[in-house]
Amino acid sequence: MSHFNAILGQSPEIHVLIRSARIVAATDVTVLIKGETGTGKELLAAAIQQESPRANQTFITLNCAAMLEGLTEVEWESELFGHIKGAFTGAISNKQGLIQAADGGTLFFDEINSLPLFIQPKVLRFLETGECLAVGDTNFYSVNVRVIAATNTDLNQQVANGTFRRDLYFRLNVVPLELPPLRQRKEDIPLLADHFLADFAELHNWQAPVLSHQAIKLLRDYAWPGNIRELRDLCERLNILFPGTVIEQENLPVEFRPALSSFISISPKLLPEKFPPSWARAWGEDTFGLFAELHYQGCVQRFRWILPGSFWMGSPPGEPDREPWNESKETWHLVTLTKGFWLADTACTQGLWESVMRENPSRFNDDSQKPVEMVSWYEVQQFIDTLSRQTAVLHARLPSEAEWEYACRAGTESAFSFGDYITPRQVNYNGDLPYAGGEKGEYRQTTVEVKSLPANAWGLYEMHGNVWEWCQDVGLADLGRNDVADPLFDLSDQDRDRVLRGGGWYSQGRLVRSAIRIRRQPDYRIYDIGFRLALG
């Protein structure tokens, strides 16, 4: 495995950087790595050395800023070039310098911008000739050392200010590589955070916490003055404070959280006709929008108010692994929902099902907070009828296929509501079969409790994976290319195929995308099929 794999990132800037670094690694050319503090310059230097012909030789790091304090000119020379016995007071024996110690290998000058001006001419001579002179000696010795340097400041500006030699700068700047600050590679933040959280969890031998969609959004919006080092430190803190939980935005330090003025406010014309609804025992507004809770025989089901709007339904032609079955097209077309609706924030739990139906058909029945499964579309209709009779004002139903995908996407057009890729820390699916050539991950081989994994941007949990979810519609082979409003397809024939969305716990990565759709007979039931309620 390439050592460059340690430099995580999917952003174009990182791909270009790694491509250049691979090329220079195979040579002995001098490299100058530029980047702000905390961007990973030492990690990149180490990867270059480990991929070079000198991989099995010495790699020595010299932090010029750390050495700067309190060292005299002679002491600097001694550290770099060595000294002979009696060269100065205290030189009681010969000493090998760092450059000679790196002979045959690589010497990394970290923060070379802090190299004192008085030592720079001698470093320049070493770079140009490969020769060094120990303090107190009169004979030069030769070394074969590859040099990599790093700076966290603009050396051009230091040259202009007279604090860095121009000729030394030119000698170092043979191949410049620039690491972008984290604020310029926001798409890499979820990947890096996920990696750090997993690493720290493994260190402590406990389950890693998972960032909610809202928490990830706040991390992406943050300026990151300390770059990757600051993100790593944050992940260590979160791992200690919240092991094995979903990290919401309120769990982040105050500097990451938005002011109250930036929270969601809902236009009155988009509100439900009545709020709070008469069936609600608890209600309110949070960062996701309006919510109301149904309390039924000790079970609590929270519903989210989904605002009306338009979205692109289906998958774009360029999406990897689209339309795995010819009989279930994902044709890309514009859909408008003119009315808002209430949607359960989780799949129906076994606890709620059993409270209504007095039995539990589920295979994975070890926890009442797991989603109910092994339920057919017909049985779900019986559940809805029974619940509606006992709570007459509820008007429960299944969501339409368009409503389901609109809510799942939560304003996104990517393959998943979390972006173009997923991990098992976000979605419960078959991690042995990742999406579009991604990395393998955990395969749980069972359902998980609802709200175990992060919510999407609208506060809805596990819409990808865990269990397939029934929709109200008849399952059409192709939804067409025309723009449509409020589609709900042919409910007159109760025996026709119905639509399932979202994928299940054993589905491979391509089968838990936002656009994935399958059709099954309404009496079909298996251990990865459940549902979530809609109201209105």
Treating each run of at least 4 consecutive H or I residues as one helix, how many helices?
A: 14
Walk across the major sheet and give the strand order. 12-13-14-17-24-18
Measured as a percent range, the helix fraction is: 25-40%
Beta content comes to 15-25%
- pLDDT averaged over residues: 90
CATH superfamily of the largest domain: paralog of FGE (formylglycine-generating enzyme)
Please tell me about this protein's structure.
By secondary structure, the chain is α/β, with parallel strands linked by helices. It folds into 3 domains: 3-180, P-loop containing nucleotide triphosphate hydrolases (Rossmann fold), CATH 3.40.50.300; 183-261, Orthogonal Bundle (Helicase, Ruva Protein, domain 3), CATH 1.10.8; 280-535, paralog of FGE (formylglycine-generating enzyme) (Alpha-Beta Complex), CATH 3.90.1580.10. 26% of the residues lie in helices and 18% in strands. It has 14 helices and 24 strands. The chain has helices spanning 12-25, 41-50, 64-68, 73-81, 98-101, 120-129, 155-161, 166-172, 189-204, 213-221, 227-241, 350-357, 377-390, 401-409; strands at 31-34, 59-63, 82-83, 95-96, 106-110, 131-132, 141-142, 146-151, 175-178, 210-211, 246-247, 282-286, 289-296, 299-306, 309-313, 333-337, 341-344, 396-397, 468-474, 484-485, 498-501, 517-520, 529-530, 534-535. The protein has a 6-stranded antiparallel β-sheet. A 5-stranded parallel β-sheet has the order 2-5-8-1-9. The two termini are 54 Å apart.
